[in-house]
Amino acid sequence: MSLSRERLQEFESGLDPLDPMSSRIPCQILGYGEISTVLMIDNDPAQAAKRMPLFSTIKAAEVYVKHYGTYCDRLREAGLNVPVDTTMLVNGKGSLSVLYILQQQLPPERFCHKLIHTESPDYLREMVERISGEIEKVWNFNTQNEPQLKLAIDGQLSNWVLLESGELYFIDTSTPLMHEEGVEVLDPELLLQSAPSFLRWLIRWQFLDDVMSRYYDRRLVYTDLIANLFKEQAAQLVDPWIAIINSQCVDLMEPLDRDQIESYYREDKLIWRLFLGLRRLDRFIKTRLLRQRYEFVLPGKIKR
Ligand SMILES: Nc1ncnc2c1ncn2[C@@H]1O[C@H](COP(=O)(O)OP(=O)(O)OP(=O)(O)O)[C@@H](O)[C@H]1O
Ligand SMILES: [Mg+2]
Q1: Ligand 1 binding site (Cβ under 6 Å of any ligand atom)
Q2: Do the domain assignments include residue 302?
C-alpha cells in the first residue's frame, strides 16, 4: 500500500466534500456508500480508499477499526476472498476523526452489477450460483459458531467482483455487522451519522432495527440481492435467478417469491429516494443557511 499517512492527512485537510474533485491532491470517485465514499486518491490504481467521517473521538474510531479487522478475519475464516486492506486514521475538521479503509482496488468493469450487462446468460447463471455459494459459506460459519458468533453479509451484486481469472471477491466489509454472544457489535449510532439530524429520531424508531437485522437472514439477503436487479435495469434476470436461488436453497428457506421481491423493491426504492433527498436538504441547510461544513459526499441522480 503506497499512500502514506502524511499524504492522506494532506488530502483530508484539503478536501471539500461538496466538490471532492477540486482537491489539491487528485481524486476520483469509485463509488458511493451510505456511510462511506470510495475514492481513488493520487491516481493510485492499486488502492480504493473508503472515507468514513463518522467519529467524534479517536477512541470510537479505534473501536471501529478493531471490529472491522475482526469482521474481515472472520469472513476470510468462513472462506470468502476479501481484498488485502489496511486502515488509516486522520484528523478531520474540528474534533472529527476520519477513518480511511484502504482496500486493494479491483477493476470497476469486473463488479458483478456491471457484468450483468456484458456477459452471457450462461456466464451469469454460473456467476450467481457462485455468489450464492459464497453467501452460504457465511451461514455455514454461523451454524458452526452458534451461539457465540454470527456474521451478517450484504450480498448485493455491487459487492462482488468476479475477475477474469475466475477469482470471486467480496468487497463490502466497511460495515462490520456481527453478533457476539447474541449482542450486535456495531454501534447503531454510527450508521445514523450520515442521516439528517432532524430525521435521526424517526430512523432510530422506525428503520434502524430492520436495516441492522436484514443482513443476518438468508431469505432477506437473497431477496435484497434479486430486488437489486430492478435497480440495475436487469429485470429480465429476476425470474431465472429466483429459480436458481430457490433450487440452491431447497429445505434451507421458504422459496423466494417474485411478488414479495417486487414489493420489497418498491418500498426500498421509496425509502432510499426519500432518504437521499432529505440528505441533500440537510446539506443545503448546513452549508448554505448555517454556513457549516457537511462531511459526506453525496451522489448525483441515481437511476432506479
Ligand atoms: N476495492 C474496490 N475497488 C474498486 N472499486 C470499489 C472497491 N470497493 C468499492 N468500490 C466501489 O464502490 C462501491 C461501494 O463500495 P462498498 O460496497 O464498499 O460500499 P457500500 O456498499 O456503499 O458501503 P457502506 O454502505 O457500508 O458505506 C462499489 O460497488 C464499487 O463500485
Ligand atoms: Mg456495497
Answers
A1: 30-31, 33-36, 38, 48, 50, 83, 103, 105-106, 108, 111, 158-159, 171-172, 174-175
A2: no
274 CA distance to ligand 2 middle (Å) = 19
| CB proximity list for 28: less than 8 A, separation 6 or greater | 21, 39, 40, 43
In a domain, 87, yes or no: yes
What residues make up the domain containing 46? 13-289
- Looking at the domain assignment, is residue 275 inside a domain? yes
Task: Give the CA count within 13 Å in the CB-facing half-sphere of 127.
Answer: 29
Read off the C-alpha cell for 3.
Answer: 499512500
Overall domain count for the chain: 1
All three cell numbers of 160, joined, read 462482488
- Does residue 299 have a pLDDT over 90? no
State the cell numbers at 58.
479517536
The residue whose C-alpha atom lies closest to atom 17 belonging to ligand 1 is: 172
Residue 92 contacts residue 53 (beta carbons within 8 Å)? yes
Q: How confident is the model at residue 33 (pLDDT cuts 50, 70, 90)?
A: confident
Confidence of residue 206 (pLDDT cuts 50, 70, 90): confident
Atom 1 in ligand 1: which residue has the minimum CA distance? 105
How large is the average pLDDT for residues 61-67?
A: 98
Mean pLDDT of the chain: 94
Which of 1, 30, 71 to mutate to test ligand 1, by most ligand atoms within 8 A of the CB atom? 30
Q: Is residue 8 part of a domain?
A: no
Cα 38 to averaged position of ligand 1 atoms, centre (Å)? 6
